[in-house]
Amino acid sequence: MINIWRLTKLQLFSSFGLNKALHTKDVKERRKSFLLAFGILVGVLMIAVVSFGYSFMLAVTFEQMGRMDLLLAIMMAVTSIVGFFTTVYKASGVLFGYKDYDLVMSLPIKTSHVVASRVLQLYVLNLFFSLMVMLPAGVVYAIKVNPGTLFYLFFLMTLLFIPLLPIIAATIIGSCISWISSRFKASRMISLVLTFAIVIALMVGSFTLNGNEQALADMGTELADMIFKLYPLAEMYVDAVCSYQVGSLLLFIALSVLSFILFATVLSTRYKAIHTGLMTSHAGSKYTMKPLEASSPFRALYKKELRRYFGSSVYVLNTSIGMILLLVMSVALLFVSSEKLGEMIEIPQLSHYLSTLAPILLSLFVVLSCTTSSSISLEGNNLWILKSSPVSKQAIWLSKVAVNLTITLPVLSISSIMLMISLRTGWMESLLLLVIPLIYACYSALMGIIVNLKLPNLEWKSEVTVIKQSAAVLVSMLIGFISLLVPLGLSLLLTQVNANLLLLGVGMIMIAACLAMYRYMQTKGEQLFQRL
Question: Per the confidence metrics, is the pTM higher than 0.70?
């Protein structure tokens, strides 16, 4: 157990850059680590506040229906589904695709201990998200229902077991995708296509269950049936926590724990063989000589960055899922009008909100699709090549910004046009719908570069650490959310002010911010690069 604990602790500390923060004697590094910890704490509190607010809004409706148990059922199912989606494409990287595999496996430690530490790392990361969502929901439920002592005991007990089955399912599916794709030449592309297909199929499936329209309309028993059909363990969870059924509690815990133990045992016995199978890729047998082509430094760097981007399935999935969701939402609104959607979810003013706040909504997906916040860190040990290459540092970071815009702008353009059609916006609203997300795309790309230069992580062992868990990604996403929450809050508070004028003012401020960041990179960019 000591070995498992030590390995897990080292991996978690390495994932969040805590090793350097705890042992460095540099005052600047310590100050930077303190500010980073403070920023992460603020981000966690913001997520908890949003979760509490969302849970409270749901609770108001469920209280009128006399079905407060639906609150915990929905939040538990959402937590499990989100955990599953995020684990599908990071499980392979955490369990198998880490750079120090040979070093770790050569240590005098049992393979089962290595596997246990890797699985525990996945578990801790998923548990952290579960706590941020479920604890606020539990607080809201306790305020509204005022339950007995058993609720608090059962609620806290079950919290520890919610992430287990989603981890198992996501790891199996993610590993199968990696194994299937590795059998073909275009393994990366096949892996991406399969993963996107599964994610989209699950999303579509969750909305095409029998009776879902009636369930959304009635907001009653059929809604519970839909949730329990989508995720059967949610029914056991509700019976245990809300109805205090000991049998359901024991069955929920037993299914989760036994499945997890069986999964970890099988994985540890076949770990080396699975690793070899997943990490083995198909190589082309023919090589054709072609004439060499010369291009400008920027174009060469852009092509290199684009190949690097599409060469990592984790990178693509983590930064493009927002664009995929935006495209799916835009297509859906062509077939379901905003007025009908507002009636279904009982928000009569939804059509008005979508028409006026659509630019902010699109910008949210842009912020979620920032590639530059991890692009510097992903260079890793190869950063010296860029630093010593005879090209301007401006061309280096501009090429990374260009890749970010290549990923976001085409989808933004298509989605904006579809939303113009479905929302029937006027010329001013249409212009803002095109321009505001474009400005935020530039803002997000430039902000990601600056934050990554300030908070680099060049000593990573797994790409997942940089792409999903690095300080730069968290901080840039937090700054992006704040830049959206401010205009959103102003739009909701200053209802007497014309929404178009307000968004126009936001656009001017964001353009000024982009120009300031661009100027900063022109003057300080090379110094920041050389300090890495």
Answer: no
